[in-house]
Design goal:
With 368 residues, the protein is an alpha/beta fold. It is built from ten helices and 18 strands. It starts with a strand and ends in a 19-residue tail after the last helix. The structure holds adenosine-5'-diphosphate and aspartyl phosphate.
């Protein structure tokens, strides 16, 4: 199946229904010029997953995880069908392989599931029949074929899993930025694009909350040596960062205003909390300077997770801002999300950017 290109389009690609036809036109150009089949992983329309979460919580503030997984995953499925129908309108052959069809088997941690098995059969059979196979991101099933969700923003992970299943050596990830920058280019003035980044650097950045790539996606890509090519999500789909084994270790300031640092009474208590969050599939970093644990990226019902794990709730310490220099990370703590933004800007203003690429064209100002 190496004559298949693996592409992923994030939620920021789909701002309105006309986005599906725009993308179908772009895919059609690729089909015509390259002659390769396409496996296209898509995310939900921007905001749709959280709207569904809101509706679920309107009915029950503590829904069961299996129910949440089934409900949240439908947003990406709708998106996949909208893209397929846009392609059909142009006369192209396309179909959708949903989570229960695509061959990704996970454990039963319904909301933060881990892939334990990949069956390449369904994808390869379907690609023989259709020019484009559209796969909704973030969906899979457990061994009993119950719907599971790979977690928030996990379509990147689906894309790498699909690349692996199809024997591909590269995966093109499209977003509203063309690559990885020295800091969030929508929030930090002067952020610069990094043309070549190592898997380790990309994984470290996503571990500390850089939203552009999913941490486990980068780890899976490293394990199977799948090069990640980042591209902008509108024609002409400009290529920015390439992530590979050869990429550079660089300097970056990473933060996510939804991340929080929780404090515990002792190092042992912090280690236990970190272990329990990790076992539940939630991204955390144990900040070893103090008995602190950073819960990265938000969208975690902390109260509920702590209650279920019988964990004494941690106390709020602040929002982490990571200064990454190669493999060395210093974590600074800001009082809240707004402070984190200002701290990130100050730190970024002081870093050397010798090997970085161009600055982001139109950085937005603080508070966006
Ligand atoms: N270091 C960084 N480099 C590039 N983008 C970043 C970085 N840190 C955070 N981001 C954010 O990641 C966003 C892209 O990720 P995401 O919102 O998940 O996109 P998509 O919906 O297309 O998957 C960008 O809009 C940008 O604001
Ligand atoms: N349904 C997913 C969509 C997704 O994976 O997001 P992204 O656009 O970052 O790929 C979510 O909101 O988590």
């Amino acid at each position: 199946m190496s004559d298949t290109a693996i592409l992923k389009f994030g939620g920021s690609t789909f701002r309105s229904h006309s986005s599906y036809d725009d993308l179908a036109a772009g895919l059609e150009r690729r089909l015509d010029t390259e002659g390769r089949r396409l496996a296209v992983v898509v995310s939900a329309m921007q905001g749709e997953t959280e709207q569904l979460r809101g509706r679920l919580h309107d009915v029950n503030v503590h829904p069961e995880d299996a129910t949440s997984a089934g409900m949240l995953a439908t947003a990406d499925l709708i998106s996949a069908h909208l893209l397929a129908t846009a392609l059909h309108r142009r006369g192209r052959s396309a179909t959708v392989l949903a989570g229960h069809q695509v061959g990704l088997i996970t454990n039963s941690a319904f909301l933060w599931a881990r892939v334990i098995e990949t069956d390449p059969g369904p994808l390869s059979r379907t690609l023989q029949e259709y020019e484009v196979v559209v796969v909704p991101g973030g969906q899979a099933v457990d061994a009993q074929r119950r719907p599971t969700w790979l977690g928030k923003n996990s379509s990147d992970l689906s894309a790498i899993a699909v690349a692996r299943a199809s024997g591909g050596s590269a995966c093109e990830i499209h977003s509203d930025v063309d690559g990885i920058y020295t800091s969030d280019p929508h929030l930090v003035r002067g952020a610069r694009m990094l043309p070549h980044v190592s898997f380790n650097m990309a994984a470290l950045m996503s571990l500390y909350g850089a939203k552009v790539l999913h941490r486990r996606a980068v780890q899976l890509a490293l394990r199977h040596n799948i090069e990640i090519v980042c591209r902008y999500n509108r024609a002409p789909f400009t290529q920015g960062t390439t992530i590979s084994r050869e990429g550079n270790q660089l300097t970056a300031i990473v933060f996510n205003q939804r991340s929080v640092v929780l404090g515990y009474d002792s190092d042992d208590a912090a280690d236990i909390a970190h272990g329990l969050f990790h076992a539940a599939g939630i991204d955390t970093v144990r900040l070893t300077e103090k008995p602190w644990v950073a819960v990265v990226g938000g969208f975690v019902d902390l109260e509920e997770v702590q209650r279920r794990q019988n964990l004494k709730p941690g106390t709020y310490v602040g929002v982490p801002v990571a200064e990454i220099r190669g493999s060395k990370v210093v974590t600074h703590i800001a009082g809240d999300g707004e402070d984190a933004l200002h701290l990130a800007q100050r730190l970024h203003d002081t870093i050397d950017l010798p090997s970085a690429g161009p600055a982001a064209p139109q950085p937005q100002l603080a508070g966006v």
